[in-house]
What we know:
Blueprint: E1 3-7, H1 11-22, E2 26-30, H2 34-53, H3 62-67, E3 69-71, H4 75-79, E4 84-87, H5 93-106, E5 112-115, H6 123-126, E6 135-140, E7 149-154, H7 160-172, E8 176-179, H8 189-205, H9 211-226, H10 231-236, H11 243-261, H12 269-282, H13 288-310
Parallel strand pairs: 1-2, 1-4, 2-3, 4-5, 5-6, 7-8
Antiparallel strand pairs: 6-7
Helix pairs in contact: 1-2
Amino acid sequence: MxxxxxxxxxxxxxxxxxxxxxxxxxxxxxxxxxxxxVRVPDFVRTAAAGLEALGLILPDPAETIxxxxxxxxxxxxxxxxxxxxxxxxxxxxxxxxxxxKTLDALAGPQVVLASSTSGLPASAFTENLxxxxxxxxxxxxxxxxxxxxxxxxxxxxxxxxxxxxxxxLMLRIGQSPIQLRRExxxxxxxxxxxxxxxxxxxxxxxxxxxxxxxDRAIADGLGLRWSFMGPFQTIxxxxxxxxxxxxRNLGPMYHGLAKEQADPxxxxxxLVATVEDTLRKQTSADDIPARQRWRDNFLAKLVxxxxxxxxxxxxxxxxx
Length: 320
């Protein structure tokens, strides 16, 4: 694979452009809003320059990376000569159904068609396509040019070699793919996040702690471990002989907690307003863009630091 088409030039599509261009690919960008596509090279240039300003090493200068990104005026132009399509159009099923009919008709038979959707299974918008076997979900964690994890989710009819081509490409561009064995609502990351958010809102609603304290429980507690270890590794290292001992000792407690938490609740307006009030005292609505830039800079440095610790030069076999 040498050429990539990106369909949809919003926040996720623009970030994907930097991911592919940074890895040396020629990237053709199409969006139904031509102005959005035209802005993508500037985003790539600015974002890459920002990473350079943080002292992060890029394979090429920001200008060189941005020069690989080419806005196009039609889907036909974007698809010409490409090997892989990353679709990032709005998360509405009718839009995706119509788009994939077009991609099915126009993209060469060897082209992988991957969707960035964060929750819609590929089967929902590819079932009636003649070439549905080359379609799948390749879901990034936003923004993908900073966060490497990618969820690869095949539909029931996706060919295994298509899944492998997508996985190999993600590794080649520096992302960290996980491969789901089958479709499931919310995929993996959003299911994990859903469980945590449900309990976070419950703790606030029941008056146990406020929203700021919940955030600190993660940021200054669990999140420090979870930023470089997953939940299974975490508990494996929290017992003298490993996870089996941990589960023998604490499994009954967690089972009891799970029964308490088996009470899904909606997030009522009054509860959301309470959490909103806490967050606005920390960051005003006008300051959210600046806080987002702070977050992105923090993420960039954190990911770079993690890579430096897990690189072969640091005495580790690395991670993929």
